[in-house]
Input
Amino acid sequence: MIHMTPPPPASNSSEPLRISCVVPAYNESAHIASFLRDLQKTLEQITATYEIIVINDGSRDNTDAAVTSVAAECGVRYLGLSRNFGKEAALSAGIEYAQGDAVILIDADYQHPLALLPEMVKLWQSGYDMVYGVIADRGHESPFKRWGTSLFYGIMESGSSIKIPRNAGDFRLMDRRVVDALRQLPERNRFMKGLYAWVGFKSAALPFVPLDRATGESSFTFRSLGKLALAGVTAFTTLPLKVWSAVGGVISLISILYAIGIAVRTLIFGNPVPGWTTLTVGLMFFSGIQLFSIGVLGEYLGHVYEEVKRRPLFLVDQDLDHGRLNPPSSSTDQRWCNFPH
Ligand code: UDP
Ligand code: MG
Output
């Protein structure tokens, strides 16, 4: 286990632990009932006061029926979103509704080992505000995906003052203080990995090896991973905007040197009108660069547009509460995005 900061003093452990577990689910009907039973068994060993918040993120299969059939038995609060909003929004919904003093985020497909939950909770009790899982072995991923991941972290590290831990995902435990801090962040672009790092707090890393997906395929294709990475880059660094000043400067310098070279050559050898190829190649190259840099501007502008629209992050269509948090804490103030019935 890697500790990021020295362990702070242990918290008062006489109070019952109140834990919320947030499970985003998109087309997980084949295994979610058994997953919730296993998760419940694990939680029962830790505390009697817990809630499992399942966010059905607009699944097209029978995830809703599979979850509601075990909801009472497993202490589930079921939130059905009005459509598929994506994992980041589903997690935001869970974080918004969670009432526990600690909130654990875990995938519904068994990839995040349940066996680690007791250790996460122990670290939280010892005083850490955030305990995040770090993928210890990416050996099962394709070389292309590993290269893409490392490129992404490279850009983030050189362009952002926020240090996003490499290979840390959404599998994590957060103290109520962290959850409340996250709830205060107003942005619509919820690049969660960046937001967890932005809020800070005392954190510990817990290495783990992801297990195989229980059934089905990952919802994240190369395209959606690319979009997520772009959302992260544009949300946390302006490096892609700034780089064009440097590129423009270097190109101007080269063109001045080139102009001097041509002038000298013309003076010495006269002008036999060469340079057609240079002209065409130069024209195409620089139009390409200009369009590319306008595209980068467009990416940022698009995100600014998304932010100013201030649309809700998610809409809750169904809310069924069988959580076992007793006594429930005073209900949270205003919910961002509840669906008005
Ligand atoms: N998920 C979601 N909404 C989506 C896509 C995925 O809530 O639009 C959930 C999914 O059900 C799972 C978790 O997010 O619990 C991780 O998704 P997945 O296993 O497809 O991705 P990967 O493990 O490759 O990151
Ligand atoms: Mg998965």
Summary: The beta strands are 2-3, 18-25, 49-56, 76-81, 102-105, 130-135, 168-175, 203-208, 316-321. Residues 24-26, 28, 57, 84, 86-87, 90, 107-109, 111, 213, 218-220 surround uridine-5'-diphosphate (ligand 1) (CB under 6 Å). Residues 7-11, 328-341 have pLDDT under 50 and may be disordered.
